[in-house]
Amino acid sequence: MKAFLTLLQKELWEYRIVVKLPLFLALFAVLNFAFVMMSDNATISIQSTGNGVIDWGLRSDGFTGLIGKLNELIAGMLYLILFMIYVPKTLRKEKEEGTLMFWRSMPVSDYLTIAAKLAFILVLVPVIASALLAFSDFIVWLMASMWLPADMMQSWQISLPNILVHWGQFIGTLAMMSLALFPLACGLLVVSQLTRYPLLSVMFAIILIKIALFQITGNGELGSQFSAFYGLPVDVLMSESALNTYLDFGWFANGGMLLGGVGLFWVSCWLRGRDDATKAV
């Protein structure tokens, strides 16, 4: 357990952006309140077109209405951005800086090392993102207490207990996002050990797969279903019910993704161990 915590501390020290970026965003949390000061209820509809259409409808009737939803989106997108920054880079960074053999000399297995990296991005970073949400909500409550009458605060559900409820609901959303991101994280860890440009390689592979599916079937239905796989974390974030959105993807599909993630985790550990053996020779 001590070794695992040490590995987490190492990741936090090397990737201080996971702390600096939320602190930077926290300075702008107050702007959410100013944008929609006069709105008691609002609806956002975001739609993208392509081979598949994603329709995200957000009904803002929770804590502070639309402002609370904006706080969720900012904190959730922060999580996704940090995920995309960290995962493709973390194992390549060991190779490029020459620290792989040093950590290999320590009494830490490849399985524990990569498990710590996954825990860092899928558990610790969401905790930091949830702290940003709680801080943003607290700023909104503080300003509302100074500027708004009691009846409007009640209408917008602005209170300290509702902050806790909102925070708890958002933690549930982040948990579902982490489950959806687990196989993607393991896949990127594998690809990052095979190429210097993992994100570019994955994007190119996705395009080729969707083209192949279209040529085989003559329509974009399978391509849309494939897009739903890597779009699930965003769908969970944008939905009214994160749990329902995750479960609606299907028990078979979710179970297959989790099992696939476990398999990719093993492959990633094997590749890291192979690199160690190669360098030792």
From TrEMBL:
Membrane-crossing segments per the record: 21-38, 73-91, 111-144, 164-190, 197-216, 249-271
Record's keyword annotation contains Transmembrane: yes
Domain of life of the native organism: Bacteria
Keywords: Membrane, Transmembrane, Transmembrane helix
Protein name per UniProt: ABC transporter
Natural source organism: Photobacterium aphoticum
The organism's taxonomic lineage, starting at the top: Bacteria, Pseudomonadati, Pseudomonadota, Gammaproteobacteria, Vibrionales
